[in-house]
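Supplementary Text 2. Reproducibility record for the structural model of the 200-residue chain.

All settings were left at their defaults, and a single model was retained for analysis rather than an ensemble. We include the record here because the model underlies the residue-level annotations in Supplementary Table 4.
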Amino acid sequence: MSATPGATPISLEDTNDLLPKHIATRQDLNEWERANILKAREWALSPRVLRRWDPTDERYLRMLHQRMFGETWRWAGKFRVKDGQNIGCPFVEISQRIPQLIGSVRYWIGHTTYSIDEIAVRFHHRLVGQIHAFPNGNGRHARLLADVLAVKHGRPVFTWGPPGGDLVDESEVRRTYLEALRALDADDRNIQPLLAFARS
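Retained model, structure tokens:
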């Protein structure tokens, strides 16, 4: 299945890990995943789950990915075990980088280093752009995790672009999102485009 620019490609080998056998095209896969992600989103943002779970807990981070993709992929909720993608750290570093990131986010929250919006967006950026912990679904997972963190601390969910914008398929909105991620990776570490996009 061909990948959208900026998305993790899905190889023929990867399709062996697909649980639903009726998936034949990228569009089938996107529609199936969307339905599952909506259920996971409802679960994650429910008052009971928000009270019980800390989004900066590694168990929660994995569980959220499993809830989002557990009806689609055999490896849902499990960190990747190979390299080869053009983004993220070497897979052997994931088990060290996740606790480091969680420690940073907890420090930022505890010391009011940044606003909650900025903390959530920085959390999202490091997960998707620098670590890329899972074989697939990293952007969607990191965005939902940022939403959960924001809501847990009294802020509304992010819009992640204008209403009706599509971040999964190739679109102008997706291109703007990827440019904002790259701006934070640039030499001046400019977070403003990503912050503005997340609340646009």
